[in-house]
Structure formats: C-alpha cells, structure tokens
Write a structure and sequence with these properties.
It comes from Anas platyrhynchos platyrhynchos (Northern mallard). It holds the Pfam family DUF4487. This is FIGNL1 interacting regulator of recombination and mitosis. InterPro entries: DUF4487. About 70% of the residues lie in helices and about 0% in strands. With about 350 residues, the chain is mainly α. Among the domains are: about 100 residues, no CATH class; about 140 residues, no CATH class. A two-stranded parallel sheet has the order 1-2. The longest helix has 30 residues.
C-alpha cells in the first residue's frame, strides 16, 4: 500500500556517497566491518536493513555517524507504510539511545518527527476513507483496515519509546533540547483520542470487526500521554527563559486542555490525570506563564467538567434509588463519579487561588 501525497521531505538532508551531508557536517567513513553494508544501502536498502538486524549495541554506537544519515534518507524517501515504520523502529531502538541530549533535537527529532507526522496523517486519512466501506463480507477491506490500525499502534509504540528514552537521559531536561518532541507527540495523542471517540460513526456500526485494535490504539495512546507527562516532570523552562520556550510551554498546556475536552467521557482516570497535568504545570511555571495562559478557558473547562460530573452523580443516584441498588457495578461507578466531582471542585478552588 502506498502513501498518498507524502513525497520526501528533504529538509532533514539526505546523504551523498561520500558520507557528507548536503549541509556542512562531515562524518568519518564506516569501518571495514560495515563497509559492505553501507555499500549495499546504496543499491538495495532492504539488504542494509537485514544486515542491521545482526548488529549489537556497541557496533550501533560506533557506526551511528555513517549509518544513521542513510537511514534518515531512506525514511524521508520511503512511500511504503510498512517500510516507513520498520526504518523508524530501527532508528529509535538501535541508534537513538546513542545520541546525547545535546544533539538529539538537531540530529534526530527535528529530522524524524515531521515525516512521522506526515505518515500519521496519511494513515488516519486512509483509515477514514477505507472505514466507510467496512463490512464483515468484505474480508479484503477488513484486512486492510486492520493493517492500517496495526501500523498506527506500532507508530504509537515507537513514539512512546522516544519519550521514554529522553526520560532516562538526565533528571533535568531543557525544553529547547527536545523542542520538536512535545508538540509532535501531543498532536498524535489528540487526534488518536479523537479517532477513538468518533469510532462509532467512523466505522459505521462495524466496530466488532476491529474492536481489539481500537482498544490497543487507545491503550497505547494512554501510555504515550502518561510517558509524556512523566517527561514534563523533568523538563526545565528556566527562570529567565527565552520567548520560544514560553511559547512552547503555553502551547503544550493549551493543547492538553483541548485533549481534556476530547476525553471527558472516555475514561475517568485519564480525564482526571490530564487535568492534574494542566494544574501542575501551570503552578510549576506560574511566574513565566501567568501572563500568557488562557486562564478563562482553563477555568471554564474546570467549571464545565465539575457541573457535568455533578449531574452524572445525580443521575446515577436517581437510577440507583429507582432500582434499589445497594452494591455492584452501578454503585462503584457512582462512587468513582463522586470522587471525580470532588476532584474537579477542589481543582477549581485551587486554580483560582494561583
């Protein structure tokens, strides 16, 4: 299957046969151990990918300067979804761990993530088109849709690995050192949760054919968001931060606020934890962000969710009273909803005191 409208993005810089970028940096030639694989990459990328499967940790570290540029070139030029994800996973699992925090934005994220978002958009577009004709009788189309969903899940897993890697680098991570990562990840999180939320209409009543993969996609997006929130506990914006850092941090909080509106009826724990992130980051960077955040939108969102959760409590209580329910699933749901309502009310009071 081919990607639509996803021509190669040359901004990342492909590499010529001499191991030199189209920019200015020159890398040393590969050692004899990998010279054969490097030569094969120019004639048969598949042979290079197969060769890399036998490389160990130390060899990947040593040959990163000569091999990563070629993988980036393959990644930029590929129009096949399967190959795209395969190359991305190789770069992330085998070479990303050998890139320092000081170099990871320029060397990896700024080159890889724009193309990754392009791949993601093409996958989601194709899903929206193919899903319209989904039926149990059309087994070929069903297989196509399932393959698309599986590819999205793999893409989410790879992004989670990227975020997890940054978390291991050091306790304090300057925002400018990973500038491309948060916005890219949040874009994927927001749109994937939206896809899950709209799945009933997207898949035209045939959810049972792909429910397992939709569930996997939701869970992986949940994990990706959780990992990103853990990363932000380590991120430093700085007391006298550059304007770009402030703009980026404000954008993060506002995007997460948009995610809150998407997931409000999907999962209680996810919803609460997403709001906790907004409150926590607003407090953490209060002195820098106070004049830039849309406080009215945040307060409005908290008020709305407080009211909705309170109304849900009343509705559940009335249903339990009519049914004379003293225990079971409905009671547990009522207790969770009461807890959520209390959380929103406390958060609202807390935020107004900032």
């Amino acid at each position: 299957m081919r990607m639509r409208g996803a021509g190669p993005d040359k901004r990342g810089g492909c590499w010529d046969s001499g191991g030199k970028s189209r920019g200015s940096r020159r890398f040393p030639p590969p050692c004899a151990e990998v010279r054969g694989a490097a030569a094969m990459s120019r004639t048969d990328p598949e042979l290079l990918l197969q060769e890399l499967g036998g490389w160990d940790w130390e060899l990947c570290r040593r040959e990163l300067p000569s091999v990563l540029p070629r993988l980036l070139c393959m990644y930029q030029e590929s129009e096949d979804w399967t190959e795209h994800v395969r190359v991305l996973r190789i770069m992330t699992e085998m070479f990303l761990p050998h890139i320092s925090l000081a170099d990871v934005e320029q060397t990896f994220f700024s080159k890889v993530l724009p193309k990754t978002l392009q791949l993601y958009d093409n996958l989601m577009y194709e899903l929206s088109i193919e899903a319209k004709g989904l039926t149990s009788q059309n087994t070929e189309l069903c297989s196509t849709v399932r393959n698309l969903l599986q590819t999205v899940v793999q893409l989410l897993e790879t992004l989670t690995s990227c975020v997890r890697y940054v978390c291991t680098l050091q306790e304090c991570v300057p925002l400018e050192s990973i500038r491309t990562l948060p916005s890219s990840v949040l874009y994927v999180i927001k749109n994937t949760f939206t896809h899950c939320k709209d799945s009933e209409s997207v898949y035209c009543g045939h959810l049972h054919l792909i429910a397992d993969l939709l569930q996997a996609m939701f869970k992986e997006t949940y994990s990706l968001q959780k990992q990103l929130m853990e990363l932000f506990d380590q991120i430093s914006v700085g007391s006298a931060s550059a304007e770009d850092n402030i703009t980026d941090m404000v954008s993060v909080i506002h995007t997460v606020l948009e995610i809150c509106s998407v997931i409000s009826n999907m999962d209680h724990a996810l919803h609460a934890n997403t709001w906790k992130f907004i409150i926590k980051q607003s407090l953490k960077h209060h002195s820098l962000l106070e004049c830039h955040l849309k406080h009215s939108d945040i307060l409005s969102g908290l008020c709305k969710d407080t009211l909705l959760s309170f109304q849900s409590c009343l509705q559940l209580a009335e249903e339990m009273k009519i049914s004379d329910i003293q225990e079971g699933t409905d009671l547990r749901l009522f207790q969770k909803t009461v807890k959520l309502c209390r959380f929103f009310a406390n958060s609202l009071v807390h935020y107004t005191k900032i």
